[in-house]
Amino acid sequence: xxxxxxxxxxxxxxxxxxxxxxxxxxxxxxxxxxxxxxxxxxxxxxxxxxxxxxxxxxxxxxxxxxxxxxxxxxxxxxxxxxxxxxxxxxxxxxxxxxxxxxxxxxxxxxxxxxxxxxxxxxxxxxxxxxxxxxxxxxxxxxxxxxxxxxxxxxxxxxxxxxxxxxxxxxxxxxxxxxxxxxxxxxxxxxxxxxxxxxxxxxxxxxxxxxxxxxxxxxxxxxxxxxxxxxxxxxxxxxxxxxxxxxxxxxxxxxxxxxxxxxxxxxxxxxxxxxxxxxxxxxxxxxxxxxxxxxxxxxxxxxxxxxxxxxxxxxxxxxxxxxxxxxxxxxxxxxxxxxxxxxxxxxxxxxxxxxxxxx
Length: 358
Fold this sequence. Notes:
Layout: E1 2-7, E2 13-18, E3 40-44, E4 51-55, E5 90-94, E6 106-111, H1 125-143, E7 150-157, E8 169-175, H2 180-196, H3 200-209, E9 226-229, E10 233-236, E11 245-251, H4 263-280, E12 293-298, E13 313-318, E14 320-322, E15 325-326, H5 331-336, H6 345-354
Antiparallel strand pairs: 1-2, 2-5, 3-4, 5-6, 6-8, 7-8, 7-12, 9-10, 10-11, 11-13, 12-13, 14-15
Helix pairs in contact: 1-4
């Protein structure tokens, strides 16, 4: 991997990640951009104990531009974009309309490919490995910022999710606090350690990897929820899945964040992850539009108590519950955070096994 760091016209950082060591990235951003003006503010909710980012400047962000005006495509034929070069492998830059900025953290955009019409599932294994390298490098760089407590790399895919740019891309949020989801997981891990002396994540993964051994076909066992396994990764639908189709992907060897993955896990990741994404696009059958999804990396907060007990994992889920129908977060989910899932996790796992690549 070759990394080239440069600046955009308004001073924001842009980083190119290339597979070839001889790649030259010296294009200049000639756009007449003024300085980025943000109004990001973190407010603490005294009732729930969590934090909310107030970012009114985001109302002016780019919204569903036509393909020939996409700001994530390379700069070509006289049209200037966020990427000054005429081509790129993977590019990361500071978001012009960040939810978090300055002392309130940082937001970055990760462009997976220069091809506007591509998808992550269609990337080569080499390109997927380069994206993993970029996620890992950004985690390491952002971890060094004194205001950052946690790094969250994710991809929103599909208009149903709320994506406003069709180009294949993801984002990275560097939070100045530990997120509520991670706080809950750390608490559960701490309570499990106190009660059993064991690691919660290790026990969960082992439970899901356990296969049927008694020969009884009438009883479901935890192995029914495994979607696919590799030598270094395992993917399964969790026992209490919140979403209609939800898969958790764990490295077999527990690590706290992307930086700690070993070479073997890194080498196997592209094959496993690309297969998962391809299966997601086949869930609802032939002729259906691409499946909308969120792919979310859960990494250990950098300085929180219990960090060593946390396990890196990726959660992949869709808001589509069946053909042409979405799972809306209505009264129970939005009002009380109690999810109601219409698809049994075992049935979801069975479907995801059925649509495996030949």
